[in-house]
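Hi support team,

I've been running sequence recovery on a batch of backbones for a student project. Most finish fine, but this one hangs at about 90% for roughly twenty minutes before it completes. I'm not sure whether the input is malformed or the queue is just slow. I've pasted the structure tokens below so you can try to reproduce it. Let me know if you need the job ID as well.

Thanks,
M.K.
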């Protein structure tokens, strides 16, 4: 009994925890608060749990989990920490409430995913309500070659010059890019020679007294003080050639080379370029000097001022012409080298035949960076993108500085001196000659840096120059990349941008990293990385429910104005048309006349026969030709006359020429037309013969058939006169009578048209 009682007492708290876990899980499922994490992100996990989210644990395969962070910093620690975390999860107690809740949601869909890389999951199978901390196709600004290409197209998107915040960069995998880099290197050689002349004169005038300057004035053409006997003196022509190259460069910027022919080109030959480059190497490396440099000071100074006004990167170029060569797709500073000989750079690229396109990029090294206690540093700046259409960028107010472990020097091109990546510096020990005022862990917060500037009287530089310049650089870069990224809704991504400050405190964008490391490698990152993760959850999760919630140190950097859709007015979308009608053949009307010429003089009878008289076999009195005729339906009907009818009329006119009147003209008798419906008594043959001989000049026509074929109105509609019910179709064609002659017409198509209103009788020939 005691044993059973003790078991009940022990199991009671477990049951209570299970009930609590079940209630919390049911609430999370109802509110769609299920999340999954791939990677070592304990801050994200704890932050979401505090907000009522339940984790669905994924057991990803090791081969699917990337071993490299986007910026590559702290990757070994991340990998080790991730493995350790997996072991801790496996060894968790069965009664842990979070483990119980995770098992309860093992069949649920996670609505929040935070992973190291996007490729860990099936990106395209996500539903629209699932949140992911990555976007697709971000290589246009998260890779070195992508950022290089994007900056070239920046002027097409925004009114900004990329040379003001991004050191010029070239890809060395194409011949055209190699030639552009070679031209840039040679131009930098010429401008560096001018800088050497100006710097030599400036260094002589500043530290020396008048007595020393007068003493050295006579020995200006001799070997300078401190120079060994092996120094080689370069002639003044060496400076003249450099000035010539700089003048040609300025002319190209002002498009003065457009009208130049090939014969008048001022470019140097390959041999001249090789000689100039080799002499430049000996000059900047301390193996040679220019005795007559003072004589060229004014000319060099004037040219440098002009070049500086058109080239904003003149200041960072320095004298050594150092370039940094980077693999296009690698991170963590791997295989990055600094070189100042163009032959070595091209040889390095040519020796390695890249299997993939765009493997190497070369970028101008900033030779005049801002130093803190003679040590180089860079700035890691975070920003968050929550939407690409419209583009929405959040800028983090806090950042941190990363110092090099070595003192800065251009005499050595070791990556330990010139690269501030933590993945490189963490393996090195701090130089003994380095200032003790620098932190031993080689990191500062931006707040500590502002205090440093304040002590040196430059406290306003951060808020007036550095901070707003970084914001402009990020905004311009994201505007260019907007058209290349997959704008998936309900996604977001946190990026880390690296900047280097120049001597004038202007920030220069070096690169942008996806999946920036959040490993607490130093006290600075332990504080800031945890803080930025918590604030990210506030922006992407809390702000959905409350637009006025606390968003931590994030501030809205850019919100693209929404483009309103045009109002849809379907009533205005109307297509109207008019049917095409066949053109009508013009038919001129015959004017009404009382006296017409004789039949022999009537030539228009071939077209019209106004003089023809019709006899419908008796009926009403004949009407004059000029009398108007109308139909019941009010339509004008043309009447066709066969061609041979015209010929009969002409022969009749010739035969009856003796009946003409004294004036040579004959008045035609009146013509009548009888409607087919009219019923008249049929005249006898004797009556018809007497009528025919009574008026030799009269023209009569026997009754027409009941149905007139091929009759068309003016509008083109066929005209069919009604047939009397008691009449039958005549078996013979109508007979034309004139005087004492009579001929039978064989064409049954002759028909009559009675004109309407004020129109006159028209007799036309139908088409055959």
């Amino acid at each position: 009994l005691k044993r059973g009682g003790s078991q009940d007492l022990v199991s009671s708290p477990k049951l209570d925890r299970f009930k609590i876990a079940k209630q919390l899980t049911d609430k999370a499922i109802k509110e769609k608060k299920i999340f999954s994490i791939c990677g070592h992100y304990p801050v994200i996990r704890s932050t979401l749990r505090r907000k009522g989210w339940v984790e669905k644990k994924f057991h990803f395969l090791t081969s699917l989990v990337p071993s490299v962070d986007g910026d590559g910093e702290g990757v070994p620690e991340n990998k080790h920490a991730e493995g350790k975390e997996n072991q801790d999860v496996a060894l968790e107690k069965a009664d842990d409430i979070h483990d119980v809740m995770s098992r309860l949601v093992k069949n649920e869909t996670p609505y929040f995913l935070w992973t190291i890389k996007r490729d860990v999951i099936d990106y395209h199978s996500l539903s629209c309500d699932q949140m992911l901390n990555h976007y697709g196709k971000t290589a246009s600004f998260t890779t070195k070659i992508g950022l290089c290409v994007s900056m070239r197209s920046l002027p097409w998107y925004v009114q900004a010059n990329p040379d003001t915040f991004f050191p010029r960069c070239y890809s060395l995998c194409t011949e055209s890019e190699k030639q552009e880099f070679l031209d840039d290197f040679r131009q930098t050689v010429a401008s560096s020679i001018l800088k050497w002349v100006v710097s030599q004169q400036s260094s002589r005038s500043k530290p020396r007294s008048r007595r020393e300057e007068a003493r050295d004035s006579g020995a200006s053409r001799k070997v300078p003080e401190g120079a060994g006997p092996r120094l080689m003196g370069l002639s003044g022509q060496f400076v003249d050639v450099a000035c010539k190259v700089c003048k040609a460069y300025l002319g190209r910027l002002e498009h003065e080379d457009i009208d130049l022919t090939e014969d008048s080109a001022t470019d140097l030959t390959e041999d001249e370029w090789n000689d100039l480059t080799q002499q430049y190497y000996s000059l900047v490396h301390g193996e040679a000097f220019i005795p007559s440099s003072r004589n060229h000071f004014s000319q060099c100074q004037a040219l440098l001022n002009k070049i500086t006004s058109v080239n904003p990167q003149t200041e960072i170029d320095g004298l050594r012409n150092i370039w940094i060569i980077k693999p296009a797709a690698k991170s963590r500073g791997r295989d990055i080298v600094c070189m100042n000989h163009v032959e070595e750079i091209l040889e390095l690229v040519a020796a390695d035949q890249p299997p993939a396109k765009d493997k190497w990029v070369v970028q101008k090294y900033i030779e005049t960076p801002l130093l803190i206690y003679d040590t180089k540093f860079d700035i890691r700046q975070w920003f968050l993108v929550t939407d690409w259409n419209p583009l929405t960028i959040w800028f983090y107010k806090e950042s941190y500085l990363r110092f090099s472990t070595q003192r800065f020097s251009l005499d050595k091109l070791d990556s330990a001196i010139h690269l501030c990546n933590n993945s490189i510096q963490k393996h090195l020990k701090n130089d003994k000659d380095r200032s003790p005022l620098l932190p031993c862990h080689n990191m500062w917060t931006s707040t500590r840096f502002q205090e440093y500037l304040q002590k040196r009287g430059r406290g306003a530089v951060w808020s007036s120059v550095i901070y707003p310049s970084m914001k402009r650089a990020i905004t311009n870069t994201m505007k260019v990349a907007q058209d290349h990224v997959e704008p998936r809704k309900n996604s977001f991504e946190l990026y880390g941008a690296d900047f280097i400050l120049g001597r004038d405190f202007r920030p220069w964008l070096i690169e942008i990293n996806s999946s920036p490391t959040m490993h607490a490698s130093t006290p600075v990152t332990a504080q800031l990385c945890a803080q930025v993760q918590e604030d990210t959850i506030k922006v992407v999760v809390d702000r959905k429910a409350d637009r006025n919630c606390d968003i931590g140190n994030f501030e809205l950097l850019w919100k693209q104005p929404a483009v309103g859709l045009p109002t849809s007015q379907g009533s205005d979308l109307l297509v109207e048309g008019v049917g095409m009608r066949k053109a009508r053949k013009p038919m001129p009307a015959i004017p009404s006349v009382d006296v017409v010429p004789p039949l022999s003089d009537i030539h228009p009878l071939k077209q019209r026969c106004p003089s023809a008289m019709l006899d419908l076999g008796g009926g009403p009195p004949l009407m004059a030709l000029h009398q108007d005729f109308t139909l019941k339906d009010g339509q004008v009907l043309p009447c066709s006359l066969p061609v041979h009818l015209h010929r009969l009329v002409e022969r009749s006119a010739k035969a009856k020429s003796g009946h003409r009147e004294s004036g040579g003209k004959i008045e035609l008798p009146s013509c009548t037309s009888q409607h087919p419906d009219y019923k008249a008594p049929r005249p006898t043959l004797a009556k018809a013969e007497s009528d025919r001989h009574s008026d030799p000049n009269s023209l009569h026509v026997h009754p027409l058939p009941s149905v007139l074929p091929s009759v068309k109105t003016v509008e083109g509609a066929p005209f069919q006169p009604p047939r009397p019910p008691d009449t039958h179709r005549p078996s013979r064609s109508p007979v034309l009578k004139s005087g004492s002659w009579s001929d039978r017409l064989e064409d049954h198509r002759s028909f009559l048209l009675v004109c309407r209103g004020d129109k006159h009788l028209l007799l036309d020939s139908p088409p055959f």
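--
Follow-up from support: It reproduced on our side and the slowdown came from queue contention, not your input. The chain has a mean pLDDT of 76. No action needed from you.
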